[in-house]
Amino acid sequence: MPLGINASVLMKNIMMESGTARYPKSEKNTLDSKPSQLVYHALMVTVTYPFTDLSRGRRSSLKPAGSSLVRSRLTQPTSPENEGASPFLYEQKTTCDADEHANAMFGWNQACDQMTPGAFTGKVVEMWIEEMQIFRATANRAVCQSGHFWKNYRVIGVPLEMSSTGLLSRQAITLDSLFTFQSETGFSLSTPEEFDAIAIAIPDSLLENLMVERDLGNFRRLMANTPNALNVLRPDPDKLVELRHYLASILDPRDDHQILRHNPQKQQAIRSMTLEHLLETLRSAQPAPMRTRSFKAHSHLVNEAIELVLSDPSAPPTIKALCDRLKVSQRMLHYSFLDTVGVAPLQYLRNRRLNGVRRDLNRTPSQAIKIHETAARWGFTHLPRFAAEYRALFDELPSSSLKKQSPSIHGSLS
Prior knowledge:
Elements: H1 5-18, E1 38-40, E2 43-45, E3 48-50, H2 51-54, H3 56-59, H4 67-74, E4 88-95, H5 98-102, E5 109-114, E6 122-129, E7 132-139, E8 143-148, E9 153-161, E10 166-168, E11 171-173, E12 178-182, E13 187-191, E14 195-203, H6 204-213, H7 217-222, E15 232-234, H8 237-250, H9 257-261, H10 264-283, E16 286-287, H11 295-311, H12 319-326, H13 330-340, H14 345-363, H15 371-377, H16 383-394, H17 398-403, E17 408-413
Antiparallel strand pairs: 1-2, 3-17, 4-6, 4-17, 5-8, 6-7, 7-14, 8-13, 9-12, 9-14, 10-11, 10-13, 12-15, 15-16
């Protein structure tokens, strides 16, 4: 279906006919807080299934494979009455751990570290329409996540709410910006507490063709996979608000997405309107300015420090030794961390290592792992101090993490 006014009219008519027309009254369109349920062909069943079934069980097959794997998953029949279903999927999940939050989205091979203290809660709402993935992710704690996703895809993210500045590839993310990255380069994204965003994963070829058709060729080249590529954009405020509202409305858990699953016409209307809003917003975008003149240099120094420490986490250097290796003063290192991630280097690097311990405890069978050995692999040799620091960050002791191994993602699928 071609983009343009016809898609807009069609979308309006379809939504009115189905009784699902709803536009958010404000920019913040909160996720449904009711307990998650599995919705399938008018059957309502509460389901809790192991996290490993959702992530590691499918992870080996998720090495970027492109649209063929997407289509095979979306069209796979689950019951006789589901035969011939169109390539559409809608899922909701709640998470209680940063690592399972990272694995809640199909096709993403990433790690996620919790960086601020307290119990973690997150939500993910995910929709697939043909080859396009649209999802909304919310987390109450600051996190640092990195990894890869679908081969030959690009992600464009739209912040809905954030308590402070985020960071992507040495560029600051603010509430009035978009952020984007490409699958071949991977990504490293730091987000603050109470971060709520919607993102679209779209095939490079589709986006490039549409940009050429819309005379956005110069802008497309700026977003290419080069050292000077744009990662953070500043669009027209009105266009950004329209895009936010539209994306929030199509992912609204209160709508009946089971009906949408069996209506290809509605799916195509949503797909067309999503692309229409996205392209108009990109057309209005400009490169986001650096927060400060020294911000890029500071973020580069922070990345170097993180790489050095995590390259051998069992023997973390002191701050003085780290500065000697980086050939900078302790004052410069301290200020660079505060400027980019908002936390002193000692605390930040310790939290990254604590997340490594937690990930190992979650992923290794309890009978095959010992807490003190796992802690030592991540540079924690004083067990009482380690246990106190672990509890301060994750609101539980390491032994508790081991006992509740293989936590559950509560999800609904339609």
